Amino acid sequence: MPGKKPSEWRAHIEHLQQIDCENNVDLTYRLEQILTTNGHGLLDTNKAQGINENFNKIRTVIKEWSKGQSDLLLSGSMMLDAFTTDSDVDTICVSPENIQADQFFGTVPCHQKFDEKCRNDDSLFCRLCFHPEVHSLQRIQSNWVPLIRLKLISFDHEIDIVFASIPGEQQIDADDLRQKNILTKIEEMIEKLDNKIKLLKEEEEDRNDQASLKNAKEQMLKSLRSLAGYHSNLKLLEMVKKNNNFHKLLLLLKLWAKSNYIYNNVMGFFNGTSLGVLAAKIVLLYPEATVPFLLERFFFTYSSWEWPLPVQIAEIRPNSSLNWNAWDEQKHLLSQYGSGGAYSNLMLPVITPGFPESNSTYLINWQTTKIIKNALDEAFKLFHSSKSGNEKLSMLFEQQIKFHEKYSQYFAITCVASDSNMFNEFCGFVVTRIRVQLTRLNDCTRDDVDFCHVILLNGCPPYTAQKYTKISSKIYCKTWLVGVKKKNDTQIQSQKSNVGGQLQQNDNKLKKELDDIIVNSYKFIGLGGGRRGGANLNLAEQKIQKHFARNNLFQGTDEADNQRDFVNLESKYIDKHKVADLI
């Protein structure tokens, strides 16, 4: 058990190894049925071929753009054989040192107004902008790991491309890497980046041009982070030794997390990386076990884990300032949110095995911890109930309570814009702020409230669509639904019909404590000196800035609501009877 000495832990695990596999064949078959029915089965040949064909289209563009010097590698869920119907295709563009991030991302917008500039720009971003099959394109440079995100006309999945420039390399060839020991070669690249970062740190202390050195070091760190995710997957796959049960367990855990609405990294829940490490830990402890046994052990292990004891599957690399440690993360949390703040403690750390190690659940907070622990506990209790094996699996994966039935009170957060670039810019910022703001919102932190639970919806609420389609022929919209868990909710009941006035009053509070705070943060960080330090605004940012200025000028009049270029953030409580209509 967690807390035991290593020798005691090994003895405990050996004692618990699966011996009796009777009836597990039927349950294994049932689990495979559940995966297939819910779009989480192992990839068939046709689907895998389609993904690889579209991957190769982008790989060809990168080869042409870099004159054969760079290459593209598949990462993420495709690499782990855990791709699902709603997965993104994660990739990494690895380049030699003469190709830098500014050549990858470029600076010119992908917009008709800048066609001539983009045609003369030698960046990969502009090359993709003019690709006939690319119909959606974003550069997301404010992320911890910056990336280009795109969609192809004939392909249902988004493709994310992160970037790494490797010191001392003249040419990168993925086919050549695969013919050699790819793990060893990637580790050599990581070593080169690590050594270069150390050298830049030393030079930064001795030289006057610290700004340029700091920028160079930051670019190296971003390359290292990009490569670290790929390295982690390689290490993980090496450790599980192509155990097919690992892939099935990971797919089942993804399905379980999604059916419990706890699969969304940005909102502070699990993602594929964290579930991959958690699943690998169980497979390593029980290497000969069947999938049903592994599933039961997963919920037993993590429902009783002594959090915040980190979950690890590899030793942390010693003697490096870049490796993960609990103390540094705690200091970072304290510096960001202050002592006693909602984020000031480690919650459910799950450490990736690749260098530099990182906490894949860093965004989990005190609210989402409660929700995740509740789901783990419920699954553990179900497995130890008197129900039959088939009943347990059906209840775990197919009979979960729908989100609109879970809570007694709900509000929706809607971000809307008049064009795709403004939408990506403004609503892309909003999505990073919701998680934090919910931990500070009075309606989520009152004494009678246990937590708030947020999910992303598809599409736009009818009331928003009706309002803005009068102004713009096309709107871009993203909505999050938040369920409020009351401490005294012993049974979820329908709200009374006389709640209209109370909801209106709460809407006013939401505007002040949620919408206004996020918008003001964007004005400072997105449009002010908080992020760019006075750098020129791009076209979308200029339009948003004009929109806010016009709003201030015509506040409270029809003119404020009738702008051709607009963004808006609006939160409002939803009558419980109408929540199902939004989902």
What does this molecule look like?
This protein is an alpha+beta fold. It folds into three domains: 194 residues, Beta Polymerase, domain 2; 156 residues, Poly(a)-polymerase, middle domain; 173 residues, Alpha-Beta Plaits (2-Layer Sandwich). It has 24 helices and nine strands. Strand 4 and strand 5 form a beta hairpin. Helix 2 packs parallel to helix 16, helix 11 crosses helix 12 and helix 18 packs across helix 23. It is globular, with a radius of gyration of 25 Å. About 1% of the residues have low confidence.
Q: What's the CATH first level of the largest domain?
A: Alpha Beta
> What fraction of the residues are assigned to beta strands by DSSP?
5-15%
Looking at CATH, the homologous superfamily of the largest domain is Beta Polymerase, domain 2
Radius of gyration equals: 25 Å
Number of domains: 3
How many β-strands, per DSSP?
9
CATH architecture of the largest domain: 2-Layer Sandwich
CATH topology of the largest domain: Beta Polymerase, domain 2
Report how far the terminal alpha carbons are from each other.
41 Å
Report the total helices.
24
Side by side, the strands of the main sheet go: 1-2-5-4-3
| Integer average pLDDT | 88
Helical content stands at 40-55%
Characteristic terms for this protein:
583 residues; globular; PolA_pol_cen_dom; Beta Polymerase, domain 2; Poly(a)-polymerase, middle domain; 9 strands; four-stranded antiparallel β-sheet; coiled coil; Alpha-Beta Plaits; NuclTrfase_I-like_C; nucleus; alpha+beta
